[in-house]
């Protein structure tokens, strides 16, 4: 089964937006269900480390990543560094007590997964969060570095996707890990799926219209808001000459439209902080209608990345300082 939503930047992947919304919904449902059942659904510490193969990847990694960040340890029996790293990851999985799940994949038995993740050597450690894959580290790593990386991963899972982890009960029987709850179909799922399909086919105008159709019926639909902002961003940069845009921005620092165009390119390229910083500096240099134009574009880019992203939160504070 091929991994889906494999976005390393997580900036303009519309499928990742939907995955994030679904992850939040599933996490909320799981917590509510656990509360109704008096804490039911707890797993054994032994279930925090699982062996995964190609046949079970979707169930054991992609679906579970809607509940908890899944760390993937790519290893092989002949790999000596793997034999040093794997026990550390297994011990930390238990120590973190459900804040992440460790999935071990034998690369010799799962060559397809190794290829799909683009792995050139092992040990290699990735994570999947709400269906999105991101590399963590490759080769030998010290425990302090591993802990720092895991802490950052857990923070991203909590802040961006509402993943608070699994409930662990030392008395629970091993093998009782619950399946991720299914999200009930929403009234606009068909229109949202049409928007993603339009985007996949390169029909940006169709994607914009599809998201707008959802918002016409449900103005508060967060998935449609994010999707529309991202589709409009891609539409703005379609067909532009990146080198010319960047030359214009460098040659005309006071030109509002030149800076806005460059910020769009920054964001599409995954340079989130650069895009935000460019526009905040432009806000500081402008007044009146020009300042308002830049401010509104910056707010649109905040929507693209997502209001809970730490980079957006920091940029909002910087924008407030620039304005007041």
How would you characterize this protein structure?
The model is unreliable at 1-17 (pLDDT under 50). The chain is α/β, with parallel strands linked by helices. 37% of the residues are buried. A five-stranded mixed beta sheet has the order 1-3-2-4-5, with helices on both faces. It is elongated and about 65 Å long. Helix 6 (189-200) packs antiparallel against helix 7. Helix content is 56%, strand content 9%. Strand 2 (70-75), helix 3 and strand 3 (101-106) form a beta-alpha-beta unit. It has helices at residues 14-36, 57-63, 80-95, 111-116, 143-161, 189-200, 204-217, 222-237, 242-251, 256-268, 272-285, 288-305, 310-323; strands at residues 49-51, 70-75, 101-106, 124-129, 132-138.
